[in-house]
Design brief:
By secondary structure, the chain is mainly α. It is built from 9 helices and no strands.
C-alpha cells in the first residue's frame, strides 16, 4: 500500500485503533528494545513465567524499569504521539460538522445515529490539554514565522490553527444570525438552534493548535519570531543564511 492510499483510508475512516511498538517513542529519547542502546542490549528478557516463579527475575525486571526512569520522566511527546492525538480530534470534528449542519427539528434523529456531539466536557478537555503544555513552559512570547527553519510539522499545525480560527468566526456569525434557540414557528427569523459550544470548542481548539505549533518547533531549537517591518529575530547559536 502506498503512503497516499494509507492516508486516504485514514481520512475516510470514522473509527481507528492505533497499535504501535516501542519505536514510536525513540524520537522522544526513549530507546526501544532491540536497537543499539536498547533494553535488550543491556538486560536479558524476563518471561512472565520466570517473573512469577523467581525472586531474582523480579528484582532484575524492576531494576530494568528503574534504570530508565530518568529517560521516561524527562521525555517529551514527538510528532508520532501528536498524530495519534489528532485522530481523536478528528472524531470530534466530525461531530462538530454534523451539529452545525443539523436543523433543530432533526437533532433527535441526529442523536440516534450515535454520531459524536460537542459537549461542555469536550471544551474542558481541550482547555486541559493546553494547560498541560503551558505548565511545561510553552507560552506565548510573540508571533512566530509559520514553518520557519523548515519545520513542516509546525507549518501544518499553524495552517490548521488558521482554519480553526476562520471556522470559529463563521460559527459566531451563525449564532448571531440564527441564535441558539429554535425560532418560533412562522416567525420567518431563520432556523436557529446553533449550539454555542461549537464556537467555544473551535476557539479553544485554535488556542491548543497554536501551542502545539510551539511544541513542534522545539525540535529545531524554538520559534523564529516575526518582527513588524519584515525583520526576523535570530535564535541563539543560529547563523543568518546567506
Amino acid at each position: 500500500m502506498k503512503l497516499e492510499e494509507f492516508a486516504a483510508k485514514i481520512r475516510e475512516s470514522d473509527e481507528i485503533v492505533v497499535f504501535t511498538g516501542a519505536g514510536i517513542s525513540t524520537e522522544s529519547g526513549i530507546p526501544d528494545f532491540r536497537s543499539p542502546g536498547g533494553i535488550w542490549t543491556r538486560y536479558r528478557p524476563v518471561t512472565f513465567q520466570e517473573y512469577m516463579t523467581s525472586e531474582a527475575a523480579r528484582i532484575e525486571a524492576w531494576k530494568r524499569r528503574l534504570d530508565g526512569w530518568e529517560q521516561y520522566r524527562n521525555a517529551k511527546p514527538n510528532v508520532g504521539h501528536y498524530f495519534v492525538q489528532a485522530l481523536s480530534l478528528k472524531e470530534k470534528l466530525i461531530g462538530l460538522m454534523g451539529q452545525l449542519a443539523t436543523l433543530p427539528e432533526d437533532e433527535a434523529r441526529y442523536r440516534e445515529t450515535k454520531f459524536p456531539l460537542i459537549e461542555a466536557s469536550d471544551v474542558e478537555w481541550v482547555v486541559a490539554e493546553a494547560h498541560q503544555y503551558e505548565a511545561r513552559g510553552i507560552r506565548f512570547t510573540g508571533w512566530a514565522r509559520p514553518g520557519a527553519e523548515g519545520c513542516l510539522a509546525r507549518a501544518n499545525v499553524d495552517f490548521a490553527r488558521s482554519v480553526a480560527r476562520r471556522a470559529e468566526r463563521s460559527a459566531w456569525t451563525a449564532l448571531e444570525t440564527y441564535g441558539d434557540q429554535p425560532a418560533p414557528e412562522g416567525s420567518g427569523k431563520g432556523v436557529g438552534g446553533i449550539n454555542p459550544l461549537t464556537a467555544k470548542y473551535l476557539n479553544r481548539l485554535s488556542d491548543l493548535l497554536f501551542i502545539l505549533g510551539r511544541v513542534a518547533n522545539l525540535e529545531i531549537g524554538g520559534d523564529v519570531q516575526w518582527q513588524p517591518g519584515g525583520g526576523r529575530v535570530q535564535k541563539p547559536g543560529k547563523r543568518k543564511r546567506g
